[in-house]
Amino acid sequence: MTIRDEILASDGARELIAAREVTATLRGRGWVVREGGGGMDVAAIATWSRGKLTARVHLLVRCLSTAGGALLFSEQQGSPVRPEIFWIGEDDPRLRRVVGSEIHRAAYPKERAVVMPALVDAPRVQSHAANFRVVRGEVAAFRGALAELDAATDRLRDELLQGAMEDDAVTVHDVDLIHRAIVTDASLWTIADANRVEQRSAVRLTHGERWTDVVQSVDAIDYAAAFRRRRFTKNPCGGGLLAHRAG
User: What is the residue range of 189's domain?
Assistant: First the structure.
């Protein structure tokens, strides 16, 4: 086997090819995308607006190849969830110390968050789980991907906070939603009991206080319908805070 053949047969090559495919798919939908952005294989931003409100969805993607791998998830009852948010009006004492009490009061007119119309549910997935096992492949690789996504999310939140402190244009009408995903070529399975083992194309895995979509394609990660139902329009150029870092 030549070095070229070894490269093409490697998990690394398959992951890089998957990242390019994810990048092309998201750009085709009008996302602002950077391959290798934010410490991830793919970082993307899409922006929707309605009146004064601006909602930016950040999609962080880690591509994971495990030739012939299989992941098994313990299926559980799922319910709609929202992406993790960053908003300068969050009811967080640490954030309030940074942005000041006046902004906090402006964020909750009539005791209701001004950005509520922009807090849409994440797209539905086939299955939900809070526990998993690696049937084929390396458990360390999958756990490592989850840890990398958590670290990337924390870095993004730090950047958003720094941007809010430095940019007077950021107001209580701006909200950032963060969606994490692992795109993998491993087969995905769920188990409910000994008689119910089913193959899936997407599973939403809850881990700690966060959740991550484990998918074989980003096709289902689409927020357009949810925002259209709330009469938001999409900014065709992405735009907004940090967009220049994903372009």
Answer: 3-246
